[in-house]
Amino acid sequence: MGERAHIVMTTVANGVNVQALLDAREVLKGAPEAAQFTWRASSKWDNGVHSTTKIQPYFGLGAEQNHKTEFVFEADHPETFAAEDNGITPIEYLLVGLASCLTAGVIAVAQNRDIQLRSVTSTVEGHHDIRGILGVDSDVRNGFNDIKVTFKIDADASAQDIEALVAQSQKRSAVFDALTNPTDVTVEVA
Amino acid sequence: MNHGSVERVTTVVVGAGHAGLAASHFLSDRSIDHVVLERGEVANSWRHERWDSLRLLTPNWQSRLPGLRYEGQDPDGYMTMGEVTEFIERFAAVSRAPVRTGANVTSVRRTDDGYQVTSSRGEIRCRTVVIASGACNRPSVPLFHSAVPDSVEQLTPFDYRDPAKLPDGGVMVVGASATGVQLAAELRQSGRPVTLAVGEHVRLPRVYRGRDVLWWMDASGVWDQRYDQLDDLTRARRLPSPQLVGTHERATLDLNTLTSAGVELVGRWAAVRDGRALFSGGLRNMFTLADLKMARLLGTFDEWASENGRDGEVDPPERFAATRVPTSTRLQLDLRSGEIRAIVWATGFRPDYGWLAVPVVDAKGQLLHEGGVVDSPGLYALGLPVLRKRRSSFICGIEDDAREVIDHLARYLAGGSA
């Protein structure tokens, strides 16, 4: 209770409603079924290796939900792949997911720890040996060999506290987990 | 009376380890008639459920029980399991605890005026029960252990005694708690190739500024933090044991020590797929989290020392090198290749309340209690991690816990409620 009162009183404003997140955490402790979300995307081939993926409905809190609007994502390959470059490559979407997830985590954790942020920027580099996907060498994997994320954070906090923010955001990141731990994936033809 | 033949006492204590015996000590102080039921013999888990080389993580001078202190020649040393057993036996003797050995409790259920306790030595009715059956009754092993190929031998710390019992060849140790790092070091020393799967862990130096790190925990007040003052009690109670070992040299046993000894570190073991172990790619962050937490803890020690004028009696502040990140870490390992001949699951322990027919256990098998006061009138618990304070997880924490819990029990008996 003391901790919550503290958060309400705080003057730190990073634009995250931490109170809502803490409340949700309390509620979901007793209602694990409401915590079961299904995120969805539907994709359609356009031409060549260009496809369009749309995202709007998802399931969560025990009911069908909708994003405020439908979001549309173009995926293609660049001209170095002899493609038309109508959108980013699919594997680049993983970088979008990782950067945005870690950034959201940094902000939420900072809010919860009463740290005022002034700017948070990051660069993400995924190192990729494309001999894997081209079938040049069967010992080379298809996916990233490794990924490097570099944050630049300006905040009212010590270097150590900032490092702790970034560490904690990895610890609670959905995308970091999805990339670093194996996931059971089923692909079938309907 | 329908149950004229049933034995009646005021309090039944389940378990004659340090916690049950401490409960008995304070019950006797208050002349509350009681009996201590013990499935095996006094200090049973210390005798039978530990590996050969294990020594206490706490230095001898911290081994204190109500009315009993370490009086040997080596206050800075660490007790072997034989010595712990003797220490607890001596405590049982000096406190004249009414221990009934070979009395395996098979059920505790509520009655109108208390509890009915059934053990292999008969039935007892009582008004109050103190559960002191321990926190480490069963090794906990991830479900995917069943997907490990049969050619690989699997052990838990309950099965493990010494390296000689394992087949020759590579060993995978899973978990970087005190248990995991100790077994990894010992197996590596036996000449075996050792791979250690590392998840969240607690890094500590054995000695800080010339004093045992647990002296700092004790003196600086960290161990005095109460269960109801902690930000995240669930986390504090689930924390893996710190990477410590009790040796004559008071040597630090962290992941850098293991790397130098030739142990290969991999990320948390996440799954088995097609006979392959898959490890997390998040190892670096596990190191960062542990290094940051250690630095923060040492910082609080330094602050305490300077604020309390203690800097003169200890060495200057120290900082330790970051955990070394291997140049490359394996993300998978073929369990069928013969590289790994045995797996030791140092993935923690859980209590066993299968005998407790009172609905006070949560979905994860943990007892529901507030500082040892269980959510059923007249039912109490002792000897669980961070039961009332951080110190509760160690032998030296039992004195205050047992006194306070038995105080509550006595008030309950006196007033009908507390």
Give a verbal description of the structure:
The complex is a heterodimer of chains A (190) and B (418). Chain A folds into two domains: 1-33 and 89-183, K homology (KH) domain (GMP Synthetase, Chain A, domain 3, 2-Layer Sandwich), CATH 3.30.300; 36-87, no CATH class. Chain A is 35% helix and 28% strand. Chain A is built from six helices and six strands; from the N terminus they run H-H-E-E-E-E-H-E-H-E-H-H. In chain A, strands 1, 2, 3 and 4 form a four-stranded antiparallel beta sheet that branches. In chain A, helix 3 packs across helix 5. Chain B has 418 residues and is of the alpha/beta class. Chain B has two domains: 7-137 and 351-415, FAD/NAD(P)-binding domain (3-Layer(bba) Sandwich); 140-345, FAD/NAD(P)-binding domain, CATH 3.50.50. Helices cover 25% and strands 21% of the residues of chain B. In chain B, the strands form eight sheets. A five-stranded parallel beta sheet of chain B has the order 6-3-2-10-25, covered by helices on one side. Chain B has a five-stranded parallel beta sheet with strand order 12-21-13-14-17. Chain B has a four-stranded mixed beta sheet with strand order 1-9-8-7, with no helix packed on it. In chain B, helix 1 packs across helix 9 (398-415). The model of chain B has no long low-confidence stretch (mean pLDDT 96).
